[in-house]
Automatic annotation (TrEMBL):
One of its GO terms (biological process) is heme A biosynthetic process. This is COX15/CtaA family. The keyword Membrane applies. It is found in: Membrane. It comes from the Eukaryota.
């Protein structure tokens, strides 16, 4: 009986004790848990803020990529000068990376080349060994282009994943990547113009790529190069601001006395670019072989008007009668084509632009010498002036010696070097934000 009377009491005590333990544990958990700090309004805990400056590795990579573009531009010039650009008559992004290795494969590739105007008009006596040389020149140019694409897009993806680029640099990198892809397509579009079988139906036509497409291809390469150099230098500019290392440079560069020099540097970059672009038209038309004297052209400072502005290059060129000239009622239209299609006009335009560029560089150099400038700007000005002198000398020598490959390639490299100095000057004169 005693045991029966004690059972309800023990049961009630156990239930109360268990409930008490659960309550204490819950209280302990609630007091030991540290609440996270409240997030700032408008911020996201999962997305870190963008960096104030891109990592310096990004800057070095951009400048290294620019150096590679510099190299391929010079190689492309040599490819054209050796008349190798039309040796590969197909475009295969993947299969085109493997060159022929056996005698049979070389014979097949050579037979393909024989079907096109360049062989039929100019190279019917070419041997297989001679074909191998021009093939490897063009193949090397194409492989280099693919490598530029890979060594740009893959590191760019890595840097973006790591968050090492500021939003501004990231946009520039995306734009450059798109331009590289476009450049590859533009290169094949250019080559196709020299493979057109319609050239065989045009009396006296020389199988070569369109000077318009050649200029577009070269101009696109210059734009890519300029964007890479400018973005790379901007990365180091950002880091200098972040490290507060500008010092006295800020006072000198932000001076109102430097404004004219700053604006002139921007204009000079454009002038160098268009001068180089006009050189592409000279190359595309072989206009450098027409007049091999300087400063005169055919004994005159300015060629005769009828040579510069010839109706042969107008829309009505078919009306020009051999030995009889033009009909009395001739009304020329489309004479503007002389600017891009008349070898005499094209060479004259390039000379004028080149001397204008040289004059502009000299004026900027003299303007800069009168100002208090940081050492980096003074060194760049001296470099710019020196490169301009070298480039003029190379251009004149290329004319006088009838466009030898070595001088012509050096002249093209000189144009990129001059552009680099102009971009660098523009960068060093950039106004420093306060």
């Amino acid at each position: 009986m005693l045991s029966l009377s004690l059972c309800p009491l023990r049961s009630t005590s156990s239930a109360a004790w268990a409930q008490s333990r659960r309550g204490f544990a819950a209280t302990l958990r609630s007091t030991s848990t540290v609440a996270p700090p409240p997030a700032a309004e408008g911020s996201s805990q999962s997305t870190p803020p963008p960096p104030k400056a891109s990592d310096k590795a990004v800057g070095y990579w951009l400048l290294a990529s620019a150096a590679s573009v510099f190299g391929i531009v010079v190689w492309g010039g040599v490819t054209r000068l050796t008349e190798s650009g039309l040796s590969i008559v197909e475009w295969n992004l993947i299969r085109g990376m493997k060159p022929p290795t056996s005698q049979a494969e070389w014979e097949v590739e050579f037979d393909k080349y024989k079907q096109f105007p360049e062989y039929k008009r100019l190279n019917q006596h070419m041997t297989l060994d001679e074909f191998k040389f021009i093939f490897f020149m063009e193949w090397g140019h194409r492989i280099w282009g693919r490598l530029i694409g890979l060594t740009f897009i893959l590191p760019a993806s890595f840097f973006a994943y790591k968050g090492w680029m500021t939003p501004g640099i990231k946009k520039s990198v995306i734009g450059i990547a798109a331009m590289i892809c476009f450049q590859g397509a533009l290169g094949w579009y250019m080559v196709k113009s020299g493979l057109d079988h319609a050239l065989m139906e045009t009396p006296g036509a020389v199988p070569r790529v369109s000077q318009y497409r050649l200029s577009a291809h070269l101009g696109s390469a210059f734009v890519i190069y300029t964007a890479m150099v400018a973005a790379g230098l901007n990365v180091f500019f950002q880091n200098s601001l972040l490290d507060n290392r500008m010092g006295q440079v800020t006072r000198l560069v932000n001076s109102s006395a430097v404004n004219s020099l700053r604006h002139s540097a921007h204009g000079l970059v454009m002038l160098v670019f268009f001068t180089a672009l006009s050189g592409a038209f000279v190359a595309g038309l072989d206009a450098g072989l027409l007049y091999d004297t300087f400063p005169l052209m055919g004994g005159r400072l300015v060629p005769p008007t009828e040579d510069l502005w010839s109706p042969e290059f107008s829309n009505e060129k078919k009306q020009v009668l051999p030995g009889k000239g033009l009909p009395t009622d001739f009304q020329p239209t489309g004479m503007w084509k002389n600017i891009f299609e008349n070898p005499t006009t094209v060479q004259f335009n390039h000379r004028v632009l080149a001397m204008t560029t040289f004059t502009a560089v000299t004026a900027i150099y003299l303007m800069g010498r009168r100002l208090a400038l940081p050492r980096s700007v003074r060194v760049t000005l001296n470099t710019l002036m020196s490169l301009a002198l070298v480039q003029v000398g190379l251009g004149i020598s290329t004319l006088l010696y009838s466009v030898p490959t070595e001088l012509a390639a050096a002249h093209q490299a000189g144009s990129l070097s001059l552009l680099t100095a102009a971009i660098t000057l523009m960068h060093f004169l950039k106004r420093v934000p306060k």
